[in-house]
Inverse folding.
């Protein structure tokens, strides 16, 4: 069974306050007052009833945190009776101060102000019952003591609320950081998925076409089949190289703690090699460049390459035998236009058919850099993938 340490501490504090009050109540009776030359008119000697009132005045300290206001009210009643009956308060005023402090530190401002007013009224009643024998200075000391104890309790409450606010703010920041981390991870997974799809779909499509060609000519022309198999091997190596470059961003050198070395990402400078690869795979393709070529932002450069790669891959898959493809790269003053068009039968596909993962990835890439994407069949037959990327001045 778990013990509530705060309640145990309050019980111990109540016992200590009661013991101190009983000692003062018993030692500083009328005989001690006469020995010190003080007046004792109207002061009753200590007895069992007076001792019971002292204990009752100190007992509420044991529940000062759970019911602070009720404990203060319960403690003020025997404390007032002690003075009204002529016993003298002894040290029970200490219990009243502890209870006032507890109300101020554990309750709201309105309740705390009510407790302070209640303690002041109780002191005024006890002073009036004693005939206001104490001097003005003593009353001022009591008033300052009550205000100081109340202020200390309020200060503790405000500090506790401030610390709770700091903890809550730290928890909110931690939750926000975790949410940002999850979003960043999801975005990174999506980016890597797009890259892997573009690489795998393109190279596997090329390898599939080359493998089919090799199978058809294997018996009739072994030399041509050998060339096709060599092209398949070369395409597979290219695919593995690009995949290592993409996945390498996830790896680090465990011994040195440094990122793994990554090769440069492909860009428009690699389009001639890509077009040549498609020609070797059986898709007659050519590259047309309009305008003055100039350096492009890294993201736009990669997005343009992937768009051409995906467009040529779709043409290779769906355009049919004898189809031709044209890649157009147009450099404008403030934009870059990239288009992949073929004259095959791919444009006759059902428009209601769902787009593949590659085209979805292209849409995401183009939207990421503020571009405009158009995908669809051409009026005279064939299919086109066209995108326009905005460029800043000087790019």
């Amino acid at each position: 069974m778990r013990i509530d340490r705060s309640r145990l501490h309050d019980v111990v504090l109540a016992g200590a306050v009661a013991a101190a009050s009983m000692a003062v109540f018993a030692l500083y009776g009328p005989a001690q007052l006469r020995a010190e030359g003080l007046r004792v008119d109207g002061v009753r000697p200590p007895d069992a009833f007076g001792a019971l009132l002292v204990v009752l005045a100190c007992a509420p300290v044991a529940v000062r945190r759970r019911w602070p206001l009720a404990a203060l009210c319960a403690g003020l009643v025997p404390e007032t009776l002690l003075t009204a009956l002529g016993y003298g308060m002894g040290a029970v005023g200490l219990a009243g101060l502890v209870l006032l402090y507890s109300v101020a530190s554990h309750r709201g401002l309105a309740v705390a102000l009510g407790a302070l007013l209640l303690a002041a009224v109780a002191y005024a009643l006890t002073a009036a019952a004693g005939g206001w024998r104490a001097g003005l200075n003593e009353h001022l000391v009591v008033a300052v003591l009550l205000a100081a104890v109340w202020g200390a309790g309020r200060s503790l409450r405000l500090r506790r609320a401030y610390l709770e606010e700091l903890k809550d703010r730290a928890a909110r920041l931690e939750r926000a950081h975790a949410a940002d981390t999850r979003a960043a991870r999801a975005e990174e997974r999506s980016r890597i998925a797009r890259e892997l799809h573009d690489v795998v779909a393109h190279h596997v499509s090329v390898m599939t076409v080359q493998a089919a060609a090799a199978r058809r000519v294997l018996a009739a022309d072994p030399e041509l089949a050998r060339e096709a198999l060599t092209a398949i091997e070369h395409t597979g190596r290219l695919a593995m190289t690009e995949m290592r470059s993409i996945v390498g961003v996830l790896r680090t050198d465990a011994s040195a703690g440094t990122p793994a070395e990554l090769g440069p990402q492909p860009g428009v400078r690699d389009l001639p090699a890509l077009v040549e690869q498609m020609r070797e795979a059986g898709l007659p393709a050519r590259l047309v460049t309009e305008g003055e070529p100039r350096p492009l932002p890294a993201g736009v450069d990669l997005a343009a390459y992937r768009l051409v790669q995906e467009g040529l891959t779709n043409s290779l898959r769906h355009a049919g035998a004898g189809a031709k493809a044209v890649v157009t790269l147009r450099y404008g003053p403030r934009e870059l236009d990239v288009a992949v068009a073929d004259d095959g039968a791919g444009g006759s596909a059902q428009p209601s058919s769902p787009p593949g993962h590659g085209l979805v990835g292209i849409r995401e890439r183009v939207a990421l850099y503020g571009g405009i994407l158009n995908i669809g069949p051409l009026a005279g037959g064939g299919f086109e993938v066209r995108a326009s990327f905005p460029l800043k001045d000087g790019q």
In short: The radius of gyration is 45 Å.
